[in-house]
């Protein structure tokens, strides 16, 4: 008999940081995460940031440039002088307050679209990747969904839900953005599952009698997490943009709820004399989407090195 | 021992290459001096991680940036390659030195015709007109004995077999008649009969053209076939260098001795006759037909296995031997019911499991366990080895504590530290992982253990250890074992009976001594004739 093979202790133990540890060393990921967290904080604490009622109309202070004083009356009828930080729009509403409150809609739409699309896509992708007989059915349905133009769907859904509360319209917008995103998530998850199900360790699990649902959860699912997180950030960024587009077109969030998209839409007509109406929401939207995308790139580099190799 | 007047095409002197910080050793290779003469084949032998490929890449100037040659000289016909500019190296590659790679599947560009890929070399390095280039390509394709060069010149790589692809690679490497050819495991991915053809092709062309060859391999059979001189590498250090016959027959360094002793002998090991009785596994006319069809495609049928009738008794090892595509793994996977057989029966004792629906099958799953080929993919990298081993027993109702206790005992059985249960697979070497896989299979207390090329991916010294372990386990637990392999040497050492498969059918089936002593079927004889180094008796006595 040969000498016993060296026990594991003899083997050099390569250093293996957790995924989080690696992500924290990526500058892009940190930059994106910090800005995104700041935006979240701004959205949540909007009333505490020196804002006024974002839908309060003030006919005496219309189209004021940022930082210009304006004498008006407050709600109680007292004479006051206000200095709108980002100016006012054509109805005299405070643009600063509207932009800050608008962060709520954008982040709500972005994050909930990402979460819902990934949850549904994950389940469908796992099922269609692992159970081959279901694959053809699920994937043809997905092909059908991909053929639906998102903006037309949004117009239809919002028209149907218009009567509801503002929550109803937001739901319609979220749904309209989620539907075309689902097939992309399904395809991503399915492709991972298709390669993992052929791995010998999955076959080993089958031969030791592990029930199928447990195989999916224990052996297949963990492999999909990293690409899904990355995909989630891209979905989040694109959902915020689509929401802004829909609002800009007037088929998204109704005008009384400030969202970056509809603030810009309303400022469009007076762009030459009051550019701040478009400038400030635009900066916020651009910065947030940039942050989410940079975060996604950083996470991709650290969580899923295969995707970024040799770029 | 070499002729003093001999010209050396490649001279490596005291070469040292630094590894990045955090690698398992400071230098990939250190103090290596090696010369390749004109018209000489020097085999560079070593186990994985010994640094043999690093040397090859250093010669060609293809080292990854992280590896730096910090000492020594590499001279090609007297010209120093380590100080040569990238442009100069580009000029030298293919004209004065060439390389052929291990994997002919991935070394060729799948969207370019073979002729075009050879043409690229000519276009880059010569001023020949297109018609002249084509004539030259046809000529070299004839020289590498490709059938019908006029047709293959316009074929895409996927239309060629593995052996033909490797011939294209050789044609590409030799078309400009370089003085040095580096072959990095060029036959490892090929079947044994193809390997024999490629080896004789390389040797013939090399004699004809007087090329110096640095041939990298881990297989002593190949060394015996082709080498003039042998250099043995261990952990980046050259431990032995000498004429082929001398190193193989009378190795001096203990490491070389150990390596050569680990090569299994073609001589079947004597075994006691197995007491006959009811077989544990019995397949009757087992068949597997793959029908691939899509929505818009015509159906295509592939008969992966046909009429396979075999039996394995308690305490017996049945080897299934064959080349890739012979259907040997299909049989194993049918028996383990990882795939469903399309015809025939599989009996485990009295239970017919071949056509049993998956729901009822679960009770019988634990009776058949399988160990796979690739130790790096057969353990879930995200789970500790303990979790992998206890998964099966816990599926069948064992408590976590009892399963862990069993896992600890099994770790001792497979000669690993039981305390290593809470480590992750990446902390183990290939051989250790294969032991863990064996422990996982044994944890189910199976009646039949299938080893599907279980030692093929391992270095020869580790292979010997795992084979010994499998043998011990089979004896002490009186398991029935189904041993799938392409390696006749391995089959000779572990099997009691052998089934030779070709094209999905069993062409010869019988006791190992009979098949190895007096093969009856023409294909079996062909396999034996192709086995590299069959003339040598590498001294393995157990």
Q: What key phrases describe this protein's structure?
A:
heterodimer; A: 311 residues; mainly alpha; B: alpha/beta; six-stranded mixed beta sheet; 20 helices; globular
Report the helical percentage of chain B: 25-40%
Radius of gyration of chain B: 25 Å
Order of helices and strands of chain A: HHEEHHHHHHHHH
What percentage of the residues of chain B does DSSP assign to strands (E)?
A: 15-25%
Query: How would a crystallographer describe the biggest sheet of chain A?
Result: 2 strands, antiparallel
Q: Tell me the number of helical segments of chain A per DSSP (H or I, 4 or more residues long).
A: 11
The radius of gyration computed from the alpha-carbon positions of chain A, rounded to a whole number of angstroms, is: 25 Å
Biggest chain pair contact, residues each? Answer: A-B, 31 and 49 residues
Alpha carbon gap, first and last residue of chain B = 34 Å
Q: Roughly what is the average pLDDT of chain A, rounded to an integer?
A: 82
Quote the beta fraction of chain A.
under 5%
Outline of chain B: globular
How does this structure look, described?
The complex is a heterodimer of chains A (311) and B (542). Chain A contains 11 helices and 2 strands. With 311 residues, chain A is an all-alpha fold. In chain A, helix 3 (95-130) packs parallel to helix 10, helix 4 packs across helix 6 and helix 5 runs antiparallel to helix 6. Chain B contains 20 helices and 21 strands. By secondary structure, chain B is of the alpha/beta class. In chain B, the strands form 4 sheets. Chain B has a 6-stranded mixed β-sheet, sandwiched between helices. Chain B is globular. In chain B, helix 4 (114-125) packs parallel to helix 7 and helix 5 packs across helix 7 (162-174). Chain A binds chain B through residues 1-2, 4-9, 11-16, 136, 199-201, 203-211, 218-219, 222-223, and chain B through 22, 24, 295, 336-338, 362, 365-366, 368-370, 372-374, 377-380, 382-383, 388, 391-392, 395-396, 415-417, 420, 423-424, 426-429, 431-432, 435, 437, 440, 443-444, 461-462, 464-465, 468, 472.
